[in-house]
């Protein structure tokens, strides 16, 4: 027998043996796993893996149909052992006022969930609506609802913010009631910037405005100086900011910022990764099987291939 045939025979016999072995390993693993699960569940029969979850629906809440009363709405899911010292420090140094555009239909459906999640991490959180709501609460603006009133609403909201909170924050973030923002990361992004610099941030689109404008979907952030220019120099001057109202408020505030020499900032990180996004996470995370003619590709200010729209 040649050495070549020996080799091939040993390969032939090796294959089934290793298959048997992996089946054995699998069965042994299942048995051991099952036994361990039994042991653990008998050691701690009353300990829930999710103590916060089980606490959320107490008897009184079940009696009210599982609805959380407003005073119980503070999220119970804390990360108690997290080291938050850097986040706490940043909260003092980079103060963010968030204002959320909402409307009476969405107060309970969307806005209250902003308050219970990311919104409470802003230094100041305001809800702008045409309707009053004591639970949120809202700032009631004297502007009609509907897309055609967006521009007027944005101007009224920023006027309110300027007149009541100019000195209470360094940056002013406009979001919608379906936006999600990680405020700790936003502070980290803004930390290098002086609030007295005329600058604004968001997800930048290229057309219509020479320096680009911030897509409404991601919301946008004005520095304190940008806010001052907008309200004091922009809104009262029709040469700077369009009076009345228009449908595309994001383009309009972009034009207005450019007229006021407020720089369209770059919200990407030091290696060019985006930090503000206009669409739902799924469309940004699942990589490109994109329609090349989709308008988004022509709107991008910075080239990227992260959007799917499969
Ligand atoms: C928390 O993090 C800060 C900064 O990284 C560090 O100086 C501090 O010692 C940490 N505290 C604890 C309790 O781990
Ligand atoms: C913007 O900058 C230009 C060029 O420096 C200047 O002429 C103009 O007056 C500035 N406008 C405002 C509103 O600051």
From TrEMBL:
GO MF assignments: beta-1,3-galactosyltransferase activity; glycoprotein-N-acetylgalactosamine 3-beta-galactosyltransferase activity; manganese ion binding; nucleotide binding
UniProt KW keywords: Disulfide bond, Glycoprotein, Glycosyltransferase, Manganese, Membrane, Metal-binding, Nucleotide-binding, Signal-anchor, Transferase, Transmembrane, Transmembrane helix
Cofactor entry: Mn(2+)
Enzyme Commission (EC) number: 2.4.1.122
CC terms in the record's Gene Ontology section: Golgi medial cisterna; membrane
Principal EC category: transferase
Occurrences of domain Fringe-like glycosyltransferase (ranges): 96-264
Domain of life: Eukaryota
Cleavable signal peptide: none
Pathway connected to this protein: Protein modification; protein glycosylation
Chief location of this protein within or outside the cell: membrane
GO BP annotations listed: glycoprotein biosynthetic process
Record localization: Membrane
Membrane topology: Single-pass type II membrane protein
Keyword Cell inner membrane annotated: no
Oligomeric form and interacting partners: Homodimer; disulfide-linked.
Biological function: Glycosyltransferase that generates the core 1 O-glycan Gal-beta1-3GalNAc-alpha1-Ser/Thr (T antigen), which is a precursor for many extended O-glycans in glycoproteins.
UniProt similarity note: Belongs to the glycosyltransferase 31 family. Beta3-Gal-T subfamily.
Name of the protein in its database record: Glycoprotein-N-acetylgalactosamine 3-beta-galactosyltransferase 1
Organism listed in the record: Drosophila melanogaster
């Amino acid at each position: 027998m040649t050495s070549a045939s020996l080799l091939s025979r040993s390969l032939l016999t090796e294959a089934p043996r290793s298959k048997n072995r992996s089946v054995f390993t699998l069965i042994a693993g299942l048995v051991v796993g099952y036994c361990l699960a039994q042991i653990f569940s008998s050691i701690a029969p009353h300990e829930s893996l999710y103590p916060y979850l089980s606490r959320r629906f107490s008897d009184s809440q079940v009696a009210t149909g599982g609805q959380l009363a407003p005073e119980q709405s503070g999220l119970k899911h804390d990360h108690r052992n997290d080291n938050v010292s850097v986040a706490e420090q940043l909260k003092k140094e980079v103060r963010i006022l968030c204002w959320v555009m909402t409307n009476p239909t969405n107060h309970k459906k969307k806005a209250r969930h902003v308050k219970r999640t990311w919104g409470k991490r802003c230094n100041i959180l305001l809800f702008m609506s045409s309707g009053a709501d004591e639970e949120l609460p809202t700032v009631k603006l004297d502007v009609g609802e509907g897309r055609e009133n967006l521009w007027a609403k944005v101007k009224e909201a920023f006027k309110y913010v300027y007149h009541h909170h100019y000195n209470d924050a360094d940056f002013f973030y406009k979001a919608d009631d379906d936006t999600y923002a990680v405020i700790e990361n936003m502070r980290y992004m803004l930390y290098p910037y002086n609030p007295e610099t005329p600058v604004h941030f968001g997800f930048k689109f290229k057309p219509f405005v020479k320096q680009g404008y911030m897509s409404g979907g991601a919301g946008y952030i004005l520095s304190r100086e940008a806010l001052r220019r907008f309200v004091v120099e922009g809104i009262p001057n029709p040469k700077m900011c369009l009076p009345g109202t228009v449908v595309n408020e994001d383009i309009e505030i972009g034009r207005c910022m450019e007229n006021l020499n407020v720089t369209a900032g770059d919200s990407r990180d030091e290696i060019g990764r985006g930090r503000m996004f206009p669409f739902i996470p799924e469309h940004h995370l699942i990589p490109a099987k994109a329609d090349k003619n989709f308008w988004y590709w022509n709107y991008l200010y910075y080239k990227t291939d992260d959007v799917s729209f499969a």
